[in-house]
Design brief:
heterodimer, A: 304 residues, nine-stranded mixed beta sheet, two-stranded antiparallel ribbon, 11 helices, B: five-stranded mixed beta sheet, 21 strands, globular
Chain lengths: 304, 770
């Protein structure tokens, strides 16, 4: 599949302050090669457009059932049922529903259309040291689109970040080097087998890419999601420390505390959410992780 | 004052129009009766003399006691009858009377029985003699027909007159330089000249009497303070000393010009009360030097000065002008930048610590100003104080110069008053004495001249909606409707000044307004340098968004017919939910969307330019639109049917130049990019409400500063910043559709609060403390 002209975009968030420095526009691309158990954006995993249904808004008026061309919708005991397997995300129910209970995640965008939105806030980027962040899903998975987007941004003198899980062929990272000012690089688990269990892939390629980028003197912020009971282990926290010893010139190390946002969203797109029992991390807990990391010798770590 | 009441930007009304408690000097209408008697006695006298004698009758009686914590004298409770340039109720200004309240007091048996007849007779006398009745009686026939109601808050209509002369910003600097003795000298000199040249010397005689009234007030309070000091000499020696200081200060200002900050504040404050001047102008200009001198001489420490200012702030808050109480600090055109900046910092600290709604502290900023001021401003705003309101001189000064057709150096003296209308300090007047509801104008046009809520004729019949061949025909009809009413409103404003000028001299304004003394004329009788006016427009964004939706759905996509749209609007969308959804999905102002923003500009340019052109049809120096913030968007919204932007019937319209609540869904930068588009040089003030999260202020200060700097560099005129509160988040949970603009931080990223699951919201709510 070629994405040269268009990309499957999940969302474009303007005035984004938490995906790189300054005031940014973050473009979220849809589709990811990993399937992390804790994923807070389960709607970003699939490469295809997806239907989301919020039952709390539904009054069972049946307008959508009438409108649906694929018979994915039915009413059982006065409650609407969605058969996500039949749904092709055509969006007819979105138009039909008077209460906005449906929405479609994912839409094809051209590079030009995305860039024209990104450029609207150019003055804010200049003043704040911000710019464009391409996030996901996994932007490396729509590589050509991502590359063109970043190239276009650089043509217009926009600072660029990419937020990546690191799982992509190394030569692609090599091609990006000239167009990315800052990599926000995920580091999820130290042990390769655990990594595979938690995310569906081994971390071998990810670590190779990190090593490659580091040696190419790329600016890298290491972002470490910490999930209670999953990877808040002594061995992983020590692993983070070991990595920072190995790569002393990382721009920063950030801890991203877990939150349970993904659960509701997963249900609305018809997925099971494995970590349904884990609560959002309390600030005190996050501070504890920070102290621990500091104990191990990670001085420069901060909350992301 | 467009706004008799203020509401938060979410639009909840607070209906509290009149002063709610009555506390005349003796509860038996003694002062009101005396005032009325005086007025009758001087009916045929020179209007200035009559006014002066009336002032003598009402003051100092309407002044009330010094309270325990006050460091200055000056609290007031106006009576049910009196004289004021500003308003004391929806139709009470100039010589005013509040007959409804008086009748209620009689019904409730609250007046002494032996006075009942005299009081009723008094109320009956004012029925035709008060200034607003005289004004209404002067309306030409057609104007009276199309402006049938004065009850803009409670009845349906396109336009309403307001009865008031509001927004006076007198020359307090001159008062500080002259003091009472100097002012008297100036009046006497002018009088001598008038006598010599055959001018109106009675005006100056009246001014002398008015100054006497001010002196009487000082003496009254001096005596009270001395008495109180004696009373507590043993029990509270500290307070006793403070009261003696108040007494001495009062005595000093009657015999010489103010020499200390304390004297300056005392003089300024009593003058503003006795003249019913509700906006306090460029305070750092007229108080800054006193503050700096006192610090230098060791007369005051910073802490002591802060205490004085805190006391003044509390007096202003308790005075409760509701929509006024502007104190301006900062900005270009100040001769004493260094001491003024020092004072400005103190004023912001006072606003940080005195947590009240007034004064409405307003900071003017410019390129190259002392950066400490902006730092301090952000600190105060970040605590959720909503003050200072920020004004951008770099944009506003050239805009005011162009809009008011004055020089740049004159424009440097612009001051916002009330809800955000500009005038030139002590040089121009621009009372907003009319309101027009642009959304209602569109609604009546779509219904061929009828108001769908009352089914009565409410405007011009310009054709059936279905017969308009294209959008341009509808647009032309809408324009004609608006213009028809603007003509009346401009003429009404002119009449208001005329009737006011014939009735009174408004002495306390005339004494300190350019060029009244020099010309020997009262402010509204040919004395003022620039007599302008303003018209408050409401529903600008709602009207523009409605027009955008009609253009797209009815005339371009043709998915909705005119008949279908009218049926949907008339039924408040019941049974037409699909149409409402389509309407809501059309582009909306505030999202940096060209189609929506262009329509707003069309609406804006049309009404602003047409209103400006009224100066050619009237004798006004300028007549300008103001797009301000208050509860009128809510109150008039309650009288406005469902609209084509998807808004439900009888709900609030947009506020000021802001997007309609919840419609700015693309984030702050998009919103700011939209609101800088309307041309600021064709109106006299527009307010920009914005709500920021606490997180942004606390944890993202550099980004916040960059955001605001960029906004101002792009042409942002003004910023009224609310730091989002827990209350807002709670309301957002109950009514998510209106709160899409609230962003919150959830762990490692941001989200729209309303899109979060309930449990996540509750979690955030439990953490977000205000």
């Amino acid at each position: 599949m070629s994405f040269a002209d268009t990309g499957m975009v999940l969302d474009i968030l303007r005035f984004s302050l938490h995906d790189g420095p300054g005031i940014r526009t973050t473009v979220f691309l849809k589709g990811c090669p990993l399937s992390c158990k804790w994923c807070h954006n389960p709607e970003s995993q699939s490469y295809k457009p997806q239907l989301s249904f919020d039952s709390s808004k539904c009054t069972n008026c049946m307008e959508c059932v009438v409108a649906c061309p694929t018979n994915s919708l039915s009413s059982v005991n006065e409650k609407l049922r969605v058969n996500f397997n039949l749904c092709n995300a055509c969006g007819d129910c979105v138009d039909a529903c008077p209460r906005d209970a449906f929405k479609i995640y994912g839409k094809l965008w051209t590079v030009n259309d995305v860039i024209s939105i990104v450029l609207k806030d150019h003055a804010y980027y200049k003043k704040s040291g911000g710019g464009l962040t391409v996030s996901g899903g996994e932007p490396m998975a729509q590589f050509e689109f991502t590359l063109e987007l970043l190239e276009a941004a650089k043509t217009h003198n926009v600072h660029t970040c990419i937020e990546t899980c690191g799982h992509a062929p190394t030569d692609r990272f090599a091609q990006l080097l000239n167009y990315v000012d800052l990599f926000l690089f995920d580091y999820k688990e130290t042990d390769p087998d655990e990594h595979k269990l938690m995310t569906g892939v081994s971390n071998r390629l990810i670590l190779e890419n990190l090593n490659f980028l580091y040696n190419e003197k790329a600016n890298i912020i290491l972002r470490c999601p910490i999930i209670p009971g999953v990877n808040d282990t002594k061995s992983h926290l020590s692993g983070i420390h070991a990595l920072t010893e190995k790569y002393p010139n990382l721009t920063a190390i950030e801890v991203l505390p877990y939150h349970s946002m993904g659960k509701g969203k997963a249900e609305r797109i018809g997925l099971n959410f494995e970590l349904s029992d884990i609560a959002t991390t309390a600030p005190e807990q996050a501070s504890q992780w920070l102290s621990k990391l500091k104990e191990y010798g990670c001085e420069e770590v901060r909350l992301g | 004052m467009a706004k008799l009441t203020d509401s938060n930007s979410a639009g909840e009304p607070e209906i509290a129009v009149q002063p709610t408690t009555y506390n005349s000097s003796d509860g038996a209408y003694t002062t009101e009766l005396k005032f009325t008697e005086t007025y009758k006695r001087f009916t045929d006298a020179h209007p200035a003399i009559r006014e002066a004698m009336c002032l003598k009758a009402e003051y100092p009686s309407y002044f009330t006691a010094i309270r325990d914590d006050d460091l200055f004298a000056g609290r007031i409770k106006h009576g049910r009858v009196g004289f004021s340039m500003d308003e004391w109720g929806p139709t009470a200004f100039g010589y005013y009377c509040q007959p409804d309240e008086i009748m209620k007091a009689i019904e409730d048996g609250l007046v002494p029985p032996e006075r009942k007849d005299a009081i009723m007779e008094m109320a009956a006398f004012w029925k035709h003699e008060d200034t607003s009745s005289k004004l209404r009686a002067s309306y030409p026939k057609e104007m009276a027909e199309y402006l049938p109601s004065d009850d803009w808050m409670g009845s349906s209509g396109i336009a309403f007159p307001l009865y008031r002369l509001t927004g006076a910003n007198v020359n307090f600097k001159e008062l500080m330089v002259l003091g009472i003795p100097g002012l008297l000298r100036k009046i006497r000199d002018s009088r001598a000249k008038a006598v010599q040249s055959g001018g109106d010397h009675r005006l100056f005689e009246a001014m002398e009497i008015a100054v006497d009234v001010l002196v009487d007030v000082c003496k009254y309070y001096q005596k009270t303070a001395e008495q109180k000091a004696a009373d507590v000499r043993i029990t509270d020696s500290k307070r006793s000393a403070e009261l003696l200081k108040i007494a001495t200060t009062l005595e000093m200002i009657t015999v010489s010009k103010p020499k200390t900050l304390r004297e300056a504040i005392q003089l300024f404050w009593l003058y503003s009360l006795v003249g019913d001047i509700r906006n306090y102008g460029r305070m750092d200009v007229y108080l800054g030097d006193f503050y700096a001198n006192d610090l230098r001489s060791g007369m005051l420490s910073e802490e002591e000065a802060l205490k004085l200012l805190q006391s003044l702030w509390q007096l202003m808050a308790d005075r409760n002008t509701r929509v006024h109480g502007r104190v301006i600090i900062g900005g270009m055109g100040r001769p004493n930048i260094e001491s003024a900046d020092k004072f400005a910092l103190l004023a912001m600290e006072a606003s940080r610590t005195v947590k009240e709604i007034e004064p409405q502290l307003s900071l003017r900023i410019y390129q190259g100003m002392n950066p400490e001021l902006m730092e301090k401003a952000l600190e105060v705003i970040g605590e959720g104080r909503t003050f200072p309101i920020i004004y951008n001189d770099d944009v506003n000064i050239p805009a005011v110069a162009k809009g008011f057709e004055v020089s740049i150096s004159e424009a440097e003296q612009y001051v916002p008053f009330g809800c955000g209308e500009y005038i030139i300090d002590h040089k121009s007047f621009g009372t907003p004495s009319g309101v027009i509801n642009l959304l209602k104008a569109l609604e009546v046009t779509l219904h061929n001249g009828k108001d769908p809520l009352t089914e009565k004729v409410a405007g011009l019949a310009l054709g059936e909606f279905k017969d308009f061949k294209d959008f341009e025909e509808l647009w032309a009809a809408y324009k004609r409707q608006v213009e028809f009413f603007v003509d009346f409103m401009a003429r009404q404003e002119e009449l208001e000044y005329k009737v006011a000028g014939e009735s009174a001299a408004f002495l306390f304004a005339s004494m300190l307004y350019d060029d009244c003394m020099e010309r020997g004329k009262a402010i509204f009788s040919g004395g003022i340098h620039c007599l302008g006016g303003t018209l408050e427009t409401y529903g600008n964004t709602s009207a523009a968004d409605s027009l955008t939706a009609i253009k797209q759905l009815v005339y371009e996509k043709k998915t909705v017919t005119p008949e279908e749209l009218l049926a949907a609007l008339d039924s408040n969308f019941v049974g037409h939910e699909r149409i409402r959804k389509e309407l809501r999905e059309c582009p909306k102002y505030g999202n940096d969307d060209e189609a929506a923003d262009d329509m707003l500009l069309r609406v804006h340019n049309h009404v602003c330019n047409y209103v400006r052109d009224q100066k050619k049809k009237t004798g006004l120096h300028s007549y300008s639109v103001v797009i301000i913030n208050n509860s009128a968007n809510t109150l008039m919204g309650h009288q406005t049917a469902a609209s084509a932007d998807g808004r439900l019937s009888k709900t609030f319209m947009n506020n000021g130049n802001a997007p309609s609540s919840g419609n700015d869904a693309e984030g702050l930068t998009a919103m700011l990019n939209s609101i800088v588009k309307p041309d600021p040089s064709i109106h006299a003030g527009a307010v920009q409400n914005m709500k920021f999260s606490k997180d942004l202020f606390v944890n993202k200060r550099p980004e916040l500063k960059a955001l605001l700097e960029t906004y101002f560099e792009k042409g942002g005129t003004q910023a009224m910043i609310t730091v989002v509160s827990k209350g807002d988040l709670e309301k957002a949970m109950q009514n998510p559709g209106n709160y899409r603009h609230i962003f919150v931080r959830v762990g490692g990223f941001s989200a729209r609060f309303v899109e979060l699951d309930r449990d996540v919201q509750l979690d955030i709510l439990s953490r977000t403390l205000y």
